[in-house]
Amino acid sequence: MSGRSSKTRARIGAVFALALLVACGTSNEAPLENLTAQQIFERGERQLENSQPDDAAFSFGEIERLYPYSEYAQRALIMQAFAYHRDGDYPNSRAAAQRYLDFYPAEEDAPYAAYLLALSYYDQIDEVGRDQGLTFQALQALRQVIEVYPDSEYARTSVLKFDLAFDHLAAKEMEIGRYYLKRGHYAAAANRFRTVVEDFQTTTHTAEALHRLVESYMALGLMEEAQTAGAILGLNYRSSQWYESSFALLNGRGLPPEVAGDNWLASIYRQVVRGEWL
């Protein structure tokens, strides 16, 4: 990317690289109404550089109000979204980024606006135990960056964050499944682990989910399902601790880890053999 987008990235990068020692205090500066769009923009940059993102967001917003048709209005909007995000004000960052996309969908900074919008959800995913609505919204917004702006510099980063958010959802299912398993609610636990195996099979939790299925199904007396889960585990994760644990459980009951019966796991096993799964 080049042109205005490069200039915007350079300005944003300068926020982190520079520490101005001669910035004026906001209270001593002239009223914004007396300044040009360029002067207000530069004030917003100084405020960012001096760790005043909330003041910067206000300054950039005033450009939109006072000089809506100036060349700085468009640049100020993306900088306002950035300033809000840096301040941890995710709803306002998201609103500013969305407004940029609504007004300037074809401009060079549109990919960055879409990425900031996605980050406004993603950066709030910090604990497995929290409500997962934000994770779903982050996934949707990251997918938008990936699909709409595949050639942008933000697409690759969005793919990485998408995978992490996807893994986060699987972790939530595992947490709930373990909770049920410890309390003897084996059918409910098995349903959670099945979700991980069917819907989150590319995450880091699949091996454990298969082992927990062995545990759950054995507790329910569903030995064919347990054997088949063990077989899938052995096919894909033979060197893992989870396979060793499942093999020990099955072997203790004289059961080999092999496909048995006609169940949902047997269907998945056939897909694995054909190379259509994992």
What would your notes on this structure say?
- The protein has 278 residues and is mostly helical.
- The chain has a domain at 1-108: Serine Threonine Protein Phosphatase 5, Tetratricopeptide repeat (Alpha Horseshoe).
- 71% of the residues lie in helices and 0% in strands.
- It is elongated and about 85 Å long.
- The protein starts with a helix and ends in a 5-residue tail after the last helix.
- CATH class label of the domain at 1-108: Mainly Alpha
Roughly what is the average pLDDT, rounded to an integer? Answer: 87
Helices and strands, in order, run as HHHHHHHHHHHHH
In the CATH hierarchy, the architecture of the domain at 1-108 is Alpha Horseshoe
Number of helices: 13
Helix content: over 70%
Radius of gyration: 26 Å
CATH topology of the domain at 1-108: Serine Threonine Protein Phosphatase 5, Tetratricopeptide repeat
Let me know the largest β-sheet. Answer: none
Shape: elongated
- Strand coverage percent: under 5%
Q: How many β-strand stretches?
A: 0
Coarse structural class: mainly alpha
Terminal residue distance: 35 Å
Low-confidence segments, given as residue ranges, are 15-27
Summarize this structure as a short list of keywords or feature phrases:
278 residues, mainly alpha, Serine Threonine Protein Phosphatase 5, Tetratricopeptide repeat, 71% helix, elongated
Quick gist of this model?
This protein is mainly α. Helix content is 71%, strand content 0%.
List the helices and strands and how they pair.
Blueprint: H1 4-17, H2 37-49, H3 53-66, H4 71-86, H5 90-103, H6 110-122, H7 133-148, H8 153-182, H9 186-199, H10 206-220, H11 223-237, H12 241-252, H13 264-273
Helix pairs in contact: 1-2, 2-3, 2-4, 3-4, 4-5, 4-6, 5-6, 6-7, 6-8, 7-8, 8-9, 9-10, 10-11, 10-12, 11-12, 11-13
